[in-house]
């Protein structure tokens, strides 16, 4: 027999959008139910941000040990080349995922949120039926927060299967493919492609556009391109992946190159990372009378949909499809439901590519500033002149920090970095933009020596015309 639940707040999806919304709603004393069809943690914790960074970490360690083999590096040498047991690596990664998954469950429990396991299907805007392992549960709510997330985009001529895989399968392989072809040179494809190259795979990247990481300017992505070339990753830019064929008894990918010719690339695995689409199909969204904005659910600056008391957050509502954006919207929506006056108007949602080297982008890019017709000044400080970077082998990869500000009042508009470990600077960058810093604020802040953050200080000094160390 169906059971029924009536609640103040129903959250659908327990990714970094949904579980944060539910925890905050619970903290605020709202009667809250969260429904999740898979595992608590969503794409980010289970098959995205965290497992990919775990694999990237292992790949980096393995590569360092390979460099230390024989003659050695940095005075460290090992006699035998290291061996990688990817199945064991994946088990270790799963351990981290499990820890975080359990942690989310504990946090929800502490916030007195009821977790219902199963897939929600909506019959109207405020009612869904959840089908899980047990009897179906019907839930009706005063407020519904949709946080259904996203899924990988399919290419009709290249369906996911044994050879063609998405990032999800790539994070759980039991051995390193000898030949890996990555379709799509966005951040997910390159993060994983670089990791597999470091783990010993022969990697080829096929990208439809003329450039890698097309969301960023070429100055910022150049060090990553250089790394790929030096590491022997073959790049086919302006090339189109066509179909999977068999070539010499082995799977291969047929590709149309920039000049129009066709080539066949042997591929034990084809990692297809051509983007993600919001998960709007298959759970009754069409019965909720909610407007769409293109493929996304349409929301205003409070994440209200067109249906009263139905809210939507995270990957479901648009770019950037990033975990921290989902969580920020989640907290806000819970607080609005609890009566607090909130709006989603961040100065920046910083983004990081965990490539080699890493990229951080916060605020406006140079082209965006130009397009807005704003006169700007900018300063770049290379990591080659930063002691900490040199001492961490991060001074010779072309990395730098770049600051862009308005020429008239020096308000900082954009801060960008490419280099080893720069992801950890993203917080300072976002904070500066959010606080409305001017160049003199950054220049007047004493930055710890020796740290990478000194390059931020120097970039600000340089844009003011008086850098010290260059
Ligand atoms: P999701 O995390 O996708 O969660 C949605 C949840 O809803 C899922 O658990 C799903 O099972 C559940 N669900 C959907 N429909 C229903 C239903 N009808 N009933 C019940 N449950 C349902 N972002 C970053 O910020 N940094 C990174 O480094 C980063 N790395 C990434 C690496 C990879 C390989 C991938 C794939 C993504 C990465 N992302 C990263 C993106 C990040 O994972 C997403 O932006 C984030 O997870 C979005 O959160 P969300 O809560 O909107 O949706």
List the total number of helices.
13
Q: How far from one another are the termini?
A: 74 Å
Largest sheet: 7 strands, mixed
CATH architecture of the largest domain: 3-Layer(bba) Sandwich
Helix percentage: 25-40%
On the 0-100 scale, what is the average pLDDT?
A: 97
**Total separate domains:** 3
Structure description:
The chain is 30% helix and 27% strand. By secondary structure, the chain is an alpha/beta fold. The chain has 3 domains: 4-152 and 278-337, FAD/NAD(P)-binding domain; 164-274, FAD/NAD(P)-binding domain, CATH 3.50.50.60; 351-463, Enolase-like, domain 1, CATH 3.30.390.30. The strands form 6 sheets. Strands 1, 2, 3, 4, 5, 6 and 19 form a 7-stranded mixed sheet that branches. The chain has a 5-stranded parallel sheet with strand order 8-15-9-10-11. α7 (218-230) links the parallel β10 (202-207) and β11. α1 (18-27) packs parallel to α8, α3 (49-68) packs antiparallel against α4 and α3 runs parallel beside α6 (187-198). The radius of gyration is 24 Å and the shape is globular. The structure holds flavin-adenine dinucleotide. Residues 12-18, 35-38, 42-44, 48-49, 52, 119-120, 147-150, 167, 188, 279, 283, 314-316, 321-324, 326 line the site of flavin-adenine dinucleotide (FAD).
